[in-house]
Amino acid sequence: GKLASKEIGLNRKVLADLAMNHPEAFKAVIDAVK
Question: How far is Cα 4 from Cα 22, in angstroms, rounded to an integer?
Answer without folding.
Answer: 25
